[in-house]
Amino acid sequence: MTDRAAQLARAAALREAFEARGAVPVETPVLQPAETLLDLYGEEIRARAYVTSDALRGEQMLRPDFTVPVVQMHMSHGAEPARYTYSGEVFRRQEHDEERSNEYLQVGYEIFDRTDPAAADAEVFSLIQGQVAHLDLRAVTGDIGILMAAVAGLDTTAPRKAALMRHIWRPRRFRGLLDRYAGRSRVSDARRALIEGRAPDCTAPLVGRRSRDEIAERIATLREDAVATPLSGLEVDLIETLLAVRETLPYALEQLRDLAVDLPSIAPAVTRLARRAEALDRQGVAIANLPFEASYGRTSMEYYDGFVFGFYSASRPDLPAVATGGRYDALTRRLGDGAEIPAVGGVLRPGLILKLEAQA
User: Fold this and answer.
1) How far is CA 355 from CA 6, 7, 23, 322, 325, in A?
2) pTM: predicted TM-score of the whole model, two decimal places
3) Are 147 and 265 in contact (CB under 8 A)?
4) Residue 23 DSSP label
5) SS3 110
6) Ranges of H-type helices in 132-226
7) CB 3.0 to 4.6 Å from 251: which of 61, 247, 284, 289, for a disulfide?
8) Residue 231 gets which letter from DSSP?
9) Hey, is 84 helix, strand or coil?
């Protein structure tokens, strides 16, 4: 059997396992409208996706993942509750590591159900864990919703909160904003000139994509931000402490509950984490040894807004995640034209599973 045939056979077996759990098989087009993805992720998605142009349909992207088209499909005509499974190629540009595949098979399982989100999280995690239990994998879990709740509760302006929310998935930029809002970093000469009204000549030719009105609006925003009260050192320290939480799940819960005393905005998210831990335990997951990292998922999981997880090879740390997943409630809201439903899912890579099995 060729490598390609073996991967397709394994993908079919994984999909059958998900169908046995009640998932409906779905297909999505390989070419996706670029407008939707650009609206969700901004221009940064171009660095990771293959983009082409169609005279009738406009810009198109080779499918970077399945989640967005599956959400669109469900929000258009899906029943509740719903479970879906799918398999097929996804395409990612690899400009910094030629060893990584730019085209690979992905098999997924998604749940749309508002009844018990914690139980749905546990179902997806335990089902995916069961498919890779024979491999020497390291599991990691996290919850981006806790950091989002911390940002939402900061005593600062709405524009600052919005900027921090946008950059949660860019840790260096996020840290830079925290330092700037707390008055801990130096303001650049160019930014200071704009704030103080020493802006460049606005009659000069425009360079870049911003219009004159957009530039003027940006300058006004910078000036408003310059006179805002700095973030307190205590709030910044609490955010740093939160991001440093890295423990097994029970101990992480203890630390987060302690943090919630001084950072009460995270209390509801911590309660959701506790419910998820109970649901995982009921599914037979060994939560006493399950790692939890509060910062996990911030560099690669842009549409997740709650539970996140991944499975990685302990013997091959050079390989990408064999399986990943998480909760994306906000995505259903953005793509649902006013409707929304709690949703969670996960994906596996059959090619990596076969690679690790061959090396065992």
Assistant:
1) 11, 10, 27, 10, 21
2) 0.87
3) no
4) P
5) strand
6) 144-152, 158-166, 171-181, 189-195, 212-226
7) 247
8) P
9) strand
